[in-house]
Amino acid sequence: MNRFPSAPTLFALGSIFWLIVLGCRTADLIAQGGATPTRAAIRATVRPTFTTVPPTKPPTNVPPPTAPPFVPTRAPTPRSAPTRVPTPAKSATPAPPPPTPDPYAGYYYKPVNKGCVTADNTRIQGTVIENGQKKNGVLVRVSDREGGAPSINDFTTGVDPSDFKHQDPSLQGQYRLALYEGQKNAGNWWVFIIDSAGNLLSPGVLVTTQDIGGCNTATVDFVHQ
Description:
- By secondary structure, the chain is an alpha+beta fold.
- The protein has a domain at 110-224: Sandwich (Immunoglobulin-like), CATH 2.60.40.10.
- The chain has helices at residues 7-32, 39-44, and strands at 110-117, 122-130, 133-134, 139-143, 155-156, 159-160, 163-167, 174-180, 187-194, 205-209, 217-224.
């Protein structure tokens, strides 16, 4: 008895085997929805980068946000605006002040009181100066009031006090009104210059003498410039 099947039998069995294999392969392809990609295609495919996509719906069971603790707001301290010192406007050169009124205006001579000292004689003396030069022949009067009658004889500058008829070159422009020679006497005296008609040529100067030390001999000059 022959132990091996015949050739037709082997052919029939082989055909059945390949039909079964093909059928299984066809079923796999249908299940995968298409043809199986080749190995080269798989290698060429770039691996995708996964990006986190936020959920389209808010998550559930999330506790509500907690309100921050209340912090009192401190009102800002208002700052006072700095005071701007105004810049003084530049003005034109100020006008010079008006001249001081001359109390001796209208007089030819101006008195210059040089003070009074303690002495043994009650006198008023001085010098008359005109344009820088000592002036002789000027009448000087002493009275108990300004512009009044003479208390003693008028004195002409430059003469000798002991002899009114003679001039003394050493006393150029000087006068000496001897009220009380050899003694101190109190009194109020006005001394001034007059012309030959008795008109005032200078304002009067008041001299107050004392019967004790302090003011006994006064010096008053008269100047014309």
